[in-house]
Amino acid sequence: MKAADFLDMPLFVGQRSASYRFVLVDGPTGILRGELTPIRDSVPSLEHDTTSTISRRVSGLLLGAADATLIDPLRDRVRISMVAGDDAHTEYPLGQYMVADDIQQVTSAGNLRPLTLFDEMFIIDQQLDTAFNANGDLCNQAITRLLAGLPIGDVVMDGTTQTSVNGWSAGTSRANALTDLATAGGYFKPWFNNSNQLRVLHAFEPANQVPDIDLDDPPRVYRNSISRTNDLPSAKNRFVVISNSLDDSAGTAAVYGVYDVPSSAPFSIAQRGFVLPEVQQAQVLSSAQAAVYARTLGLQRTIFERVTLSTPPDPRHDGYNVVLWDGVLWLEIAWSMPLAPGGAMTHTLRRAYPTTGEDEVLA
After folding, report:
1. What is the model's pLDDT at position 285?
2. Closest by alpha carbon to 262, among 228, 213, 305?
């Protein structure tokens, strides 16, 4: 069976097999130090949450006495992958992680080690030891300066025309500064992807995208797992960003940007008949930049119609995937995957609403 057929599970396939690899890596040098074999009775879980600063974490990883003596919690990383049961035994990366806490359970057969792992955003999410100022640079350039010297490997970042004049004092989390710069630059919240690259992705309207993953063809959703929820009655339909800066380019004193959710959304201004605004202040220099900031806020908010459902584990899910399910498009905002054979992968999807001509950003 080919890898794509294995993951898509054609209609004539009722079950599949897969295994998971846990490779021990020396963090500073990248040297492979061997493989870990978690205790079989334990079922580790990998969770991805786009709303968290550290978006990925592994819980429930229990190492036996032999593996517990191998790992150095300060230097080592654990590289995780899924090995598919196709003919080529295709291996799919699921990221690289560092020890978040170190607990040892003392037994007569030796010490066991239950571990919680974080992705390498943990390195970024530390306090700045000196103040940092964006100095009016392009946001992608300011992000590059902010991350300079950190041992985090590749950064894959889209370009931007937006600049920032924000500053952060010593003691501020570097990850908070990164998130602020990302929002000002029109990006989603950055995350470490399956290949352990820090990804800084332009925010986009999911309804205008070609889906990354099609759950309808062939159908792979477990019917008894579907749960629909929404916060539509209280959902904001207008996002406003204001600044006390002067917009010299427009010849006005007010810097003001607005983003309205698409009129096709059931909680939009057109559908509800009145405005439910969310207003934020930000250090932006022009109304055009304030509009980009407001749009990014609107696209990142999770107060929409949501669905939670389960499928067989699929390592192609990463961050901000556009998913086709039940004939409509959704943006995946969270997922969790058991790192052991036989479990189901749970997905949280946010409904996407198509835009029309009147849904453009106002400045």
Report:
1. 79
2. 305
- Count Cα neighbours of 130 within 13 Å in the Cβ-side half-sphere: 4
pLDDT of residue 304 exceeding 80, the answer is no
Beta strands 277-281; 238-243: pairing state: parallel
Nearest by Cα to 240 from 199, 276, 201, 194: 276
CA distance 217 to 215: 6
Band of residue 92 on the pLDDT scale cut at 50, 70, 90: very high
More confident residue, 104 or 80: 80
Residue with tokens 């058991």: 338
Cα–Cα distance for residue pair 164/296, rounded to 1 Å: 15
3-state SS record for 195-255:
CCCEEECECCCHHHCCCCEECECCECCCHHHCEEECCHHHCCCEEEEEECCCECCCCECCE
Name the amino acid, one letter, at 295.
Answer: R
* Residue at 264: amino acid letter: S
Structural domains of the chain sorted by starting position, each given as residue range(s) with its CATH number in brackets: 3-119 (2.40.10.10), 124-200 (3.55.50.10), 206-359 (no CATH)
Q: Which of 1-15, 282-296, 307-321 has the lowest mean pLDDT?
A: 1-15
Instruction: Tell me the chain's radius of gyration from C-alpha atoms.
Output: 22
Indicate if the pLDDT at residue 184 is higher than 60: yes
CA-based nearest residue to 334, from 102, 47, 14: 47
To the nearest whole number, what is the mean pLDDT of the chain? Answer: 88
Tell me if residue 175 falls in helix, strand or coil. helix
18, two tokens = 């897969």
